[in-house]
């Protein structure tokens, strides 16, 4: 089994896509993350859903979870408004990490190792300089446990 057997079309976002739009795409399509593409539509980064959420949750609540508990429900529900006016670019880590990208010939073990090493819920598959799609963790696990 190769990446070409597991790859599926996958939505992408650009660096200047509004975070609210990216979050809506994640929620509407129940995605584990997004592929962020550059101006040539090639993968620039993989953006796990947790990184989008990180922009919405106030830093003080991330740093001290006890503070999140003392905020009343009405104010806690409003935290998503913090994403307004922000872009996907702001979700990306300041230091580039290994990009989980492979070619269609990658084996299931290569895909699993790449996901584990990069802590990514998906791997972008590129062939001939074009994004083909992605292999998700769900597709990989489904394949691993049906063999």
From TrEMBL:
Pfam families named among the record's database cross-references: CBS (PF00571)
SUPFAM superfamilies linked to this entry: CBS-domain pair
SMART domains: CBS
Domain of life, per lineage: Bacteria
Domain CBS intervals: 9-57, 98-145
Protein name per its UniProtKB record: CBS domain-containing protein
Organism: Streptosporangium fragile
């Amino acid at each position: 089994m190769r990446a070409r057997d597991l790859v599926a079309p996958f939505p992408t976002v650009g660096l200047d896509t509004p975070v609210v739009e990216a979050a809506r795409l994640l929620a509407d399509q129940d995605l584990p993350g997004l592929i962020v593409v550059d101006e040539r539509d090639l993968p620039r980064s993989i953006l796990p859903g947790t990184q989008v959420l990180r922009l919405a949750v106030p830093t003080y609540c991330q740093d001290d979870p006890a503070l999140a508990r003392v905020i009343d429900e009405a104010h806690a529900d409003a935290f998503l408004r913090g994403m307004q006016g922000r872009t996907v670019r702001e979700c990306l880590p300041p230091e580039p990490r290994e990009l989980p990208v492979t070619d269609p010939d990658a084996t299931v073990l290569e895909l699993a190792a790449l996901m584990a090493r990069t802590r990514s819920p998906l791997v972008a598959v590129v062939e001939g300089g074009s994004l083909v799609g992605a292999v998700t963790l769900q597709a990989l696990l489904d394949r691993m446990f049906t063999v």
